[in-house]
Every structure is written in C-alpha cells, then in structure tokens.
Amino acid sequence: MTSILVAISSIFAIAGAAWAARRLSRIPVCPICIGVAGTWLWMLIARSLGYAVDTTILSMLLGGSVVGIAYLVEKRLPQGRSPLLWKTLFIPVGFVAAYGLATTQWILFAVTGAVLVSLAAFFLAQSAASGAPSETVEELKKKMQQCC
Length: 148
Known about the structure:
About 80% of the residues lie in helices and about 0% in strands. The protein is flat. The protein starts with a helix and ends with a helix. The chain has two domains: about 1-55; about 55-148, no CATH class. By secondary structure, the protein is mainly alpha-helical. The protein has helices at about 1-25, 30-50, 55-75, 85-100, 105-125, 130, 135-145. The chain is built from seven helices and no strands.
C-alpha cells in the first residue's frame, strides 16, 4: 500500500510543478502526463541505483504512458489513416517495450522502441495520394475564385 501512495504523491507533486511551470512559460504540456512520466522515470533511476521499486506500480505507470502516447499521436494522424489500426499495432508493441524497460531487458526495449518509432513515422507520414488535391477540391477552388 505504501508503494501506491508514494507513486500517487509523486504524480501529484510533479504534475503540480509542471502545471506551475506551464503557467509561467506557456509551453503546452499535460501536467498529469508529466507527473506520470516523471514518476516512472525516477522509479527507473532508483531501481538502477539498487533501491527496491515495486515493479507492479512501475509497470502500471509505463503502461499508462504507452496508452497516452497512442492517443496523443492518434489526434495527429493524417486523414485516411486508421486510428484503430494505429492503436492495435502501437499499444501491444508499446507494452512489450515497457516490459523491456521495467525488467531491464535493454535489447528488447531497444528493438521494440525502434518498431514504435517506425510505426509512428509510417502512420504520421502523408501519403502521396493524400497530398495531391482531388479534382473536386480543385473545381471548388475555381468556382469560389469566380464567385465574387
């Protein structure tokens, strides 16, 4: 029970600091996202320094960040990209990457991290077909220019 209280307290403290920093700097960041990521980051560092860290809590925080990243990227997907396919591919691979990070399996983390970056690059890239204006769009542009 102490582990979860420490994690929740850390999330609130880091989120509060991020909220204050956001108000001062006007940088658009999500304080809760910063709180969660900051908490799992210090937990990973503490674990690497030999301190006992509850891996269940660490895993929950990492998993939450994976899902948060998936939804953040989903908002930026170009038209025609499937949000369902994006999340179906990204989230399970992200969980494997989080597992590799939580269990210090660095090769697993590196490989799945590279897959995640590749998936994001593929899904965020504009396709050549979507970049070219359709005939309908061009026709509407011409009509609007001749309108007034």
